[in-house]
Task: inverse folding
């Protein structure tokens, strides 16, 4: 079913959050909904973090370095992606590479380098980052340990506004994916030797021509982009101004932003004891959760004022209860949606509470996560955005293709 005509003036931006393989499977369902609407061709800019970066990297990999059209995603990329996540474990393979190969012991404190090897060897992602299609623009977000800023790979360049910007050269896609998912403690940073790259920097941010520059650090340590912004919204959305950002690098300005948020909710639990190393992890989770919540509140407030300019698809929300909650003023759309079959509230909670890891997903959990992503974006777009009518088809059931 081709619904491109339903939104002919939409130029989409996607912000894909972190959350390990839970996030990757959730986003796969979100993109499946877009593909059924024939909207993948309308995506102009993707910004991703951690599990979202792993997902987009695999999409390009399974589409032979190209951004797939909607039909290719449904018939080829999605099934291959499902097979990858349900048959191969990054986490176990990376541990074996570290323990069993003495040459990797030097990466004991920067294990993202080992994760990059694992993505290449286990997932087969061996291409260079610059080999990917230039459209849509893809911002792969990390966090720079030395500066505390957002470090990004985009359009053949990498850097942050303090360290400067460098051409990526032959930097591998696997390394960029690994650095974006390099959670402190669990994985550790990916290390870059700054002398191996040619750096440029403007004297003033976004003003004048860049000039040669050498970062004041011999190494840059790239951590999970979620430390800075686990929603991945910063390249696309100005939280302070509560507006979509304009980007001179885009041939078409985005006018619709979908935020796919698969971050697990913070659990309510007793804090570990003062000598328990997991106490620090709990404190970090609280801080990251509050940072994420501020971005979510700003974006949701933007949507209240601009309901046709985006949607927020948050993991764990029960479809039926949400449709009923927001039905006022949208009664006809809500009635049509409620006639369709949706996951239960318990199933939505099960999806949201799946742990953040890089292990192999069993098929039933993958199907649950991707269906939840599909359904969550469906009711949000069709009920809240109101720029298209809900379809009458069985696609609302969110089953595996």
Result:
């Amino acid at each position: 079913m081709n619904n491109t005509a339903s939104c002919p003036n939409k130029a989409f931006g996607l912000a894909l959050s972190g959350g390990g393989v839970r996030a990757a499977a959730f986003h796969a369902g979100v993109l499946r909904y877009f593909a059924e609407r024939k909207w993948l061709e309308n995506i102009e800019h993707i910004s991703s973090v951690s599990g979202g970066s792993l997902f987009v990297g695999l999409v390009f990999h399974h589409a032979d370095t190209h951004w797939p059209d909607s039909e290719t995603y449904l018939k080829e990329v999605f099934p291959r992606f499902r097979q990858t996540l349900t048959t191969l474990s990054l986490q176990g393979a990376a541990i074996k590479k570290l323990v069993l190969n003495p040459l990797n012991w030097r990466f004991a404190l920067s294990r993202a380098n080992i994760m990059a090897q694992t993505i290449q060897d286990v997932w087969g992602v061996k291409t260079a980052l610059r080999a990917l299609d230039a459209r849509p623009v893809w911002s792969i977000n990390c966090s720079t340990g030395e500066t505390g800023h957002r470090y990004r790979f985009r359009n053949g360049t990498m850097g942050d506004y303090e360290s400067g910007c460098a051409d990526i050269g032959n930097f591998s896609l696997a390394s960029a994916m690994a650095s974006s998912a390099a959670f402190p403690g669990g994985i550790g940073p990916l290390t870059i030797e700054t002398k191996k790259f040619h750096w440029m920097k403007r004297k003033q941010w976004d003003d004048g021509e860049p000039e040669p520059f050498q970062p004041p650090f011999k190494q840059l340590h790239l951590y999970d982009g979620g430390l800075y912004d686990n929603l991945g919204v910063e390249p696309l959305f100005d939280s302070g101004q509560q507006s979509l950002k304009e980007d001179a690098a885009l041939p078409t300005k985005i006018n619709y932003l979908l935020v796919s948020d698969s971050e697990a909710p913070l659990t309510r639990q007793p804090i570990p004891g003062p000598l328990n190393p997991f106490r620090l992890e709990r404190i970090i989770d609280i801080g990251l959760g509050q940072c994420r919540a501020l971005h979510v509140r700003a974006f949701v407030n933007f949507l209240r004022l601009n309901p046709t300019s985006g949607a927020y698809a948050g993991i764990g929300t029960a479809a039926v209860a949400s449709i009923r909650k927001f039905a006022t003023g949208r009664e006809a759309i809500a009635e049509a949606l409620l006639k369709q079959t949706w996951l239960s509230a318990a199933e939505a909670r099960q999806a949201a509470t799946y742990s953040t890891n890089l292990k192999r997903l069993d098929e039933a959990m993958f199907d649950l996560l991707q269906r939840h992503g599909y359904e969550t974006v469906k009711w949000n777009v069709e009920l809240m955005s109101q720029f298209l009518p809900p379809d009458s088809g069985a696609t609302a059931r969110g089953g595996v293709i």
Observations:
- The two ends are 14 Å apart (CA to CA).
- Confidence is low (pLDDT under 50) at residues 1-6, 389-401.
- The first helix runs from residue 20 to 36.
